[in-house]
Amino acid sequence: MELKIQSIHFSATEKLHDFIEKKLSKLEKSNESIHSAEVTLRVVKPETANNKETSIHLNLPGAEMHAEKTSDTFEEGVDLCIDSLKRQLEKLKGKRQ
After folding, report:
1. Residues 78, 44, 37, 86: is their CA dihedral positive or negative?
2. By the 8 A CB rule, do 69 and 53 touch?
């Protein structure tokens, strides 16, 4: 799976990159047909709570999936997006069977 991580208005740490790669690799184990993933991390209004937007876009053969969440930390946002994408993948798998 090809992974692209984009951080807007800040520079992401290596620890955050590793966390995202680890979470997406778990998602890939449940569905090996994922071609690529694009993760966008954005800080909105740095002085407020819930100011971190996380967006994950997956490319699969014949389908695309997207999840976007706003939270206090990027780790929490990634977890929420992964949960949403897992449900979408299960729904797609059910439709194809």
Report:
1. positive
2. yes
Domain 2-80 in CATH 3.30.160.100? The answer is yes
Who's near 20: CB < 8 A, 6+ residues apart?
3, 5, 39, 78
pLDDT tens for each residue of 15-54: 999 999 999 999 988 888 899 999 999 998 777 888 999 9
The number of C-alpha atoms within 13 Å of 96 and in the hemisphere containing its C-beta is: 9
- Provide the residue ranges of all domains of the chain, joining segments of one domain with +: 2-80
Query: Which residue carries 């929490």 as its tokens?
Result: 76
Residue 20's H or E segment, with its range, is helix 14-30
Give pTM, 2 decimals: 0.91
**Concatenated DSSP letters of 26-95:** HHHHH-TT--EEEEEEEE-STTSSS-EEEEEEEEETTEEEEEEEEESSHHHHHHHHHHHHHHHHHHHHHH
